[in-house]
Amino acid sequence: MATLSLFTPSFPPLTAMKPHAIAAPTHLASDEHRWLAVLRRSDTAARPDGSGDRFFYGVTTTGIVCRPSCPSRRPRRENTLFFDSVHQAEAAGFRTCQRCRPAGPPPEQEAAARVDRVRRYLEQHAEEGAVTLAVLATIAELSPFHLQRVFRAAMGVSPAEYARRLRAERFAEALQAGSVTEAVYAAGFQSPSQVYAKRAATGMTPGARKRLGEHQHIRYSIVDSPLDRMLVAATDLGVCLIAFDTSDDVLREELHSRFAAAELEEDNGRLADHAKTVLQHLSESPTAKRLPLHVRATAFQQRVWKALEAIPHGETRTYAQLAAEIGAPKAVRAVGSACGANPVAPVVPCHRVVGSNGSLTGYRWGKERKAKLLEMERAGKDA
């Protein structure tokens, strides 16, 4: 009977490559700082003057040059050489990594360019209706999962949420120029039922939105604040809007879009006390909580906003924690929508709600202002 013999193939042992002569860095960070950057997967190392030094590293056992942020397994220190540029590494006999592509633009720059490409596409095609994530992924040349992740990291919302906000803005603009039906299709909705379905989230029908502020006299004032220019608007019953931007014209447009049918009057004198109280609220003034408010809200939004006001100064909650606190643990997304609909931030402190991992998620007035608000509150708490 024939027998099967097993054998182990023999390969020549791997030997470390010997690169050509390499010019040692002179005015840049030390090799020790560069190695620490590789361990942290940071693309820059600290120079002696405190600035950042962008560099690359080559692995002598593989002959590959990578960015320090490359997701591949870290090499052993004795097998690592550092280079000022990819060209220098290639001249020394190394080839570029196919994962981190060190010869291309920095990853954060490339990701920003891809996100911007998708953002511009959504803005240019907002009236055409919903766009699938697969189509957007093709435009960005990324997988749908990766696009979702980098877009949310850059914009604070998913591509779908961004598109919905664009359609809502286009709808509000078109509503002032024509009928509800005309505005529905001009904004890219498939049918009026899609807009009316959002009534539960907004608390009003499209017709009511067009009449928003009807028979009301709203005074407003625009002042300087730690968060750029600030608009405070109020009816005779209380403050109805607090907004931030670098441009007074943009703030006036924001006010008009929310209260298109109202009589608007700029009145710095009569609103001086309200504006002063809001400014004091940024530093947790005791009088800020007595600021009268006049805002439209659904019953659910009122529950969320009341829970927001209960978050202690200088502390944060996740959306899931806030949903649990109001007795609706499965309504995490609805809680996020209620926070986004808050027209009187930071008096109703929706900036104190963060992502499940503690990251700063979307904020109506920008993540930079959200970060500054939290920083100011923590500084005041530690003082």
TrEMBL record:
GO molecular function: DNA-binding transcription factor activity; methylated-DNA-[protein]-cysteine S-methyltransferase activity; sequence-specific DNA binding; zinc ion binding
Recorded family membership: Belongs to the MGMT family.
Organism: Terriglobus roseus (strain DSM 18391 / NRRL B-41598 / KBS 63)
Protein name, UniProt field: methylated-DNA--[protein]-cysteine S-methyltransferase
Catalyzed chemical reaction(s): a 6-O-methyl-2'-deoxyguanosine in DNA + L-cysteinyl-[protein] = S-methyl-L-cysteinyl-[protein] + a 2'-deoxyguanosine in DNA; a 4-O-methyl-thymidine in DNA + L-cysteinyl-[protein] = a thymidine in DNA + S-methyl-L-cysteinyl-[protein]
Enzyme class: transferase
Any one Gene Ontology BP term: methylation
Gene3D superfamilies linked: DNA Methylphosphotriester Repair Domain, Homeodomain-like, Methylated DNA-protein cysteine methyltransferase domain, Winged helix-like DNA-binding domain superfamily/Winged helix DNA-binding domain
Residue intervals of the HTH araC/xylS-type domain: 116-212
Keywords linked to the UniProt accession: Activator, DNA damage, DNA repair, Methyltransferase, Transcription, Transcription regulation, Transferase
SMART domains for this protein: HTH_ARAC
Assigned EC number: 2.1.1.63
Cofactor requirements of the protein: Zn(2+)
Origin superkingdom: Bacteria
